[in-house]
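Hi team,

Filling in the usual template for the complex we talked about on Friday. All components are listed, including any nucleic acid strands or ligand strings, so the model treats them as one assembly.

SUBMITTER: L.P.
PURPOSE: interface mapping
COMPONENTS: two
RESIDUES: 440
SEQUENCES:
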Amino acid sequence: MTIQFNDESFRDDYTFHNSDWAIKRFPFPFHEDSYMYSVNMEQHRGGPEGSVYEMRFDVDEHYVSEMKDRAIVLDQDPLRCQSLPHMTLAGWDLLELIMVSKSEDYPDLFELHRNGNQWRWINKPLGIDHSFTFMDETTLPYGPMEYITRQAQGDFAVLDQRDEMLWMDAGMVTTQADWSLDFDIGMNFFEWHAPVPKAHEMGIFQRALKFLLNIQQGAPARRLNWTMTVNPLLDTSPENYHKWGIQKTTLTPENIAHKQHLRVELQTFFRLPRSNALVFPIRCYLCSFQDLMTVPKWGRRLHRVVRDLPVELATYKGFIDNRPMMLDYLSQFDDGLPTSPGIWPDLETEPPLTK
Amino acid sequence: MSFAKCRGSMTDRDKTPWLIPSDDITMHDAFALPALELETRVELTENHHVFSRLGFTIVGAGSHEGYDRPTDFLLRKPISLSEDS
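RESULT (copied from the run log):
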């Protein structure tokens, strides 16, 4: 399949847009008409053809523009990318994982040629043709983690594993939902999740940690997470809260359809072979309410989920103040009909809106 | 403990720094703390301006591990109950 890359922005004039193809493959995160935390992990071993689950590292129409946006963020704030000194080997592991995966999954876009430690990497969408020596940092323009994650969509947290615990010891984080790598770096799994309400009492993190510690090489896992974002902003970081936080107050009944976006994270987990670190890619997908409403099942379900979400979660996810306006809009797309189980759009089988 | 430290906390979750005055009072009452301190990265000049407007001043600098130059500033705001009241 040939991907037509969009020329678009995630800031200022917000020209970001989803094609019909991107809308239909959007990772809608609700498998039923209500939502509560769970350890919703599953094996990351592909998925339906064309879905965001199919490949190990999904590449879509936003790839080139997302990489430009990452470069802007790093230019303004270089410490969005950090790697503690003991994590360099994990960086090489990650570079290898991404290069091998992309060249195998998208051979028309990426090529990797290896002759011992002499590697040649070709990234056609970004116009890169680079020969380097694997495990020799001096042959790359950046450290290995930064080099490859400047060419891969989504954030990357690289977690060291020691003492039966995971430690946030490296990462590339420019498209985050209001958390800071600089604040969290060096923290353990429980420390960086401390702000999340309810989940601790539910034992979610103890079970999640046990699962993650046991992820084996070649057996990656995945889950979805979600929040809401006003305007198609990739960089909703604490560092730039003074820029984007205020935008939540600009929502009106007239503009909510195109300004309010459902923000979904496809989180995957891969064991790295040499370092035994765990890499945690967090891939952000954005879809406006008006685009989501083109799928009748999603329209019905999103209204019910937003309506019934506990106050604590709506507050934590940052949309408690705008929830009444969101419900006014979404209720137009909920005719009360039942919805089919699962996250897929089911366009052929779900009835059109009847009101 | 001499100071209350809040590192980089401009999050939606805790509403800092917008609630710093009331936090000041709470911490002053509870711990008799003399000042609030926070750290922000050198490049984030807009953040320096925001915290400056809130009464913080730069009192030091630090470096992230592996860097041979300052990468963050230490900012401090004295806590005064009467001032915040």
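MY TAKE: Helices of chain B lie at 20-31, 45-53, 81-84. The beta strands of chain B are 4-5, 35-41, 57-62, 72-78.

Thanks, L.
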